[in-house]
Write a structure and sequence with these properties.
Layout lengths: L8 H17 L2 H4 L1 E3 L9 E7 L22 E7 L1 E10 H6 L4 H25 L5 E3 L18 H13 L16 E5 L1 H7 L6 E2 L20 E5 L2 E5 L5 E2 L11 E7 L4 E4 L5 E7 L12 E10 L1 E3 L5 E6 L9
Parallel strand pairs: 1-12, 5-16, 6-9
Antiparallel strand pairs: 2-3, 4-14, 6-11, 7-8, 8-9, 10-11, 11-16, 12-15, 13-14
Helix pairs in contact: 1-4
């Protein structure tokens, strides 16, 4: 193992900026229930826990008699922690000739890579939920979804109705800044069709600081609007399956994820995410002429669905898909 010299203060600042850029752009991570993974746990298995809803206590109490009471029902999910990461080398000549700090710019690029990687991994977990509506609701499989079966107000309303009927808790501030609403995360291609609905409430209409606006408030990363009890978030991390649908050519199918608070859990970044900026030094025999520096990141973490009844997936087509302008 190569032992690098201690980085200087400037490099520490860049490393901190890398983490801050990463956190700002995360979508699925922010909306999950945070679970701490303790260092020194002596196991790669993490346990995510939650409590089941209690039955209503509708039987009158008997005077002077202690009621039976009920034990809390705890559910838990076991997940295996895994490590992910990457790094890049920067030659001393490239750094010398570059008109800015290449280490700083590389840190920003790698922060985006880390953010997209972590969000994609969590998305894959959430997209495996068992409650699904295919297309416009008239088909029963992904392979039958057509490009004309786009995201509509009717589908959004159907998803919200499913969650509300199950008494799924809506997000409450400051969790993800999605206050008093469910989260709906969708790809920009699908939201292009939803925006065609003239009644759709655009985010600009409720982010005003005007106290008379009942829907005012801070916006979540990528948030574009509020509709039918859900705050709509645009993210290219939303799932899609190319050429998996029906029609000729086969339609790209998009997953629209709608969920309430506590639907899934993620391990906290603190302690699990590390950034590395290394330059050669007297202890580094692998880089004796200090011809390169390295910038990288590493994350150890996991995610898991806690309650399938708190989330639903709409699988739809889109009028425009791919790189079509």
């Amino acid at each position: 193992m190569t032992n690098f010299a201690v980085i200087d203060v400037g490099q520490k600042v860049v490393a901190k900026e890398l983490i801050e850029i990463l956190k700002q752009n995360l979508v699925f991570y922010k909306l999950g229930k945070m679970q701490k993974v303790n260092k020194g746990a002596n196991s790669k298995t993490a346990i995510f826990r939650g409590f089941a809803k209690q039955a209503l206590a509708t039987t009158p109490l008997t005077e002077g008699t202690v009621p039976t009471g009920h034990d809390l029902s705890m559910s838990y999910v076991s997940v295996t922690l895994a490590q992910y990461g990457d790094f890049t080398k920067i030659s001393d000549l490239a750094e010398f000739l570059y008109d800015r700090s290449m280490v700083k710019d590389a840190s920003e690029v790698l922060a985006i890579q880390a953010q997209e990687t972590i969000d994609n991994l969590i998305m894959s977990t959430v997209a495996a939920g068992t409650n699904v509506v295919y297309g416009d609701g008239s088909v029963a499989a992904r392979a039958n979804v057509l490009s004309t079966m786009t995201l509509t107000t009717i589908l959004v309303r159907r998803a919200v109705r499913f969650l509300e009927r199950g008494n799924v808790k809506k997000f409450t501030s400051p969790v993800g800044l999605i206050n008093k609403a469910y989260a709906l995360v969708a790809h920009p291609d699908t939201l292009n069709d939803l925006r065609a609905d003239t009644a759709f409430v655009n985010a600009v209409n409720y982010s005003s600081p005007d106290p008379s606006n009942q829907n005012r408030g801070d916006l979540f990363t990528g948030e574009v609007g509020y509709w039918m009890g859900a705050r709509i978030v645009s993210s290219t991390a939303a799932p899609l399956w190319a050429a998996a649908g029906g029609g000729s050519p086969a339609a790209t199918v998009y997953g629209v994820l709608v969920f309430g608070e506590g639907a899934y859990a993620v391990s906290e970044l603190e302690g699990g995410l590390e950034t590395y900026i290394h330059t050669g030094g007297v202890q580094d025999t692998s880089n004796p002429l200090e011809q390169y520096s390295t910038v990288g990141w590493k994350w150890i973490g996991a995610s898991a669905i806690l309650d399938n009844n708190r989330l639903i997936r709409l699988e739809v087509g889109a009028t425009l898909s791919g790189s079509t302008a």
